[in-house]
Amino acid sequence: MPDVPVGKHRRQAGKSGELLNVTTAPFMEQLRAYVNSDLLYHLLVASLLFLLSLVSGWIAKRLLGTVGRKIISRTASELDDLILNIILDKIKWIAVVVGAYLASEELIKATRETDVMARQFLGYAQGIIFVCFVIVVTLVLIRIADTSVKYAMERHARRTDSKFNEALLPLINRLINIVIALVAVIIILDHFGQDVSSLVVSLGVGSLAIALAAQDTIANMIAGFVIMIDRPFRVGDRIQLPNGDTGDVYEIGVRSTKILDFDNNLIILPNAELTKGRIVNYSYPQQVIRVMVEVGVAYGTHLDDAKKIMLNLAKGHPDVLADPVPEVFTVGLADSSVNLRLIARTDDYRKKFLIETKLREQIYETFLKEGIQIPFPQRVVHLVTEPHGTPQNPA
Length: 395
Fold this sequence. Notes:
Blueprint: H1 6-11, H2 14-19, H3 25-35, H4 38-72, H5 79-110, H6 116-160, H7 168-191, H8 196-213, H9 215-230, E1 238-240, E2 246-252, E3 256-261, E4 266-270, H10 271-276, E5 280-281, E6 289-297, H11 303-316, E7 327-333, E8 338-346, H12 352-370
Antiparallel strand pairs: 1-2, 1-5, 2-3, 3-4, 6-8, 7-8
Helix pairs in contact: 4-5, 5-6, 6-7, 11-12
């Protein structure tokens, strides 16, 4: 290949020539004159650009790992340290991709205009390198977004002294990842000369059609997002459903919520139904719950004695709280009994059923020993006879 004058080479330098400093121009001219081959010259420049990119990445990683880490360590936030670790983990791959792209740019200049196959191959290689670069940057942004969201939610949970919502984090991360991935796809398509505007219009029309066809699913997804934000209940809470069923929240999903009932069966409810109905949460804001035992005693019983027995049994139970003090109330004068109601508190809703069961058994046994009668339902029937001894017809 004949030698190309230096002036012509400068006009054809393009982007890679702009990266060379003015002070290196004499060296490059001497190198070009020494090799005396245009192809070999561009190969050497491409190799130098690739090595320079690797060295720059290594230097940047060393500086960020030492000086940058010392500067960041002075801040009170831990988020910048986490982001720095993500960047340090991927900076070498960024340097490799950038170096490969610059080297391919230089190699294109080594090919002739008539060498269509070589230029086409290098063009494909540049496209692959560009896609790899976008993928690397996208992965870095996704990791930074995931780390930032998790850090912000944990910090909010510590500041408000509330439980960290583990169900909300995957949903937010999934939405952010989808947005970042769509932006990366649009950038790649735009780089290859594709009409992005028509793609956006097509996506809009397709999204509208999907939204109309899946109204119930979208409504449940929106309701799931509302549940995760509003947090009327969390995973592990014991709730009462609108139909009266009671169970523990097993999982809060995007479309449905799973409830584990006392029979160890999994109840799956669409989120839209939960947001519309009345939910009773036994676990929030506190796990302290009322213990209630109602007993009927016979008429003629000394109520003070019966109340004293019930109070002593409640105070003697190890799981009944001393504050507030248990109390017994007379709540009704029924047909066959005087109804007494014991009210107490326990520190865990999971103990409620066992405490009430134990107190009922103890009250029954103690009343039996003390001679306090728990009466059966009674009916008094009056028979009125006529003079001839025939019972009177009520009709």
